[in-house]
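Input/output pair, single chain:
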Amino acid sequence: MTYARRDPQVARGIRRIRLERGWTLLSLRHFREILLIEVYDADNNPSIQSHPDDYTENSRGLMLVDALSKEWSYFSPPDGGKVVYCFLEIT
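Output:
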């Protein structure tokens, strides 16, 4: 995905494929002491952390991201969908 960010035509093509097929894309980038994880999907709804009870079968993803990451959030790319990202400290 890093290559796609440098080349707008590639990025638009990936987004178009993603939106048409409902793909989810994952980007991992390593910096000195941080790992940046980005997950792209075609859903325009904001990512909201829930607090499931012991019997809920889903909705734990962002709870785990929040527990393990230094910071997390999301943004809406111009072509639609959303990107949820987090920073993990590497020790």
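The first strand starts at residue 25 and ends at 30. Strands lie at 25-30, 34-41, 71-75, 82-89.
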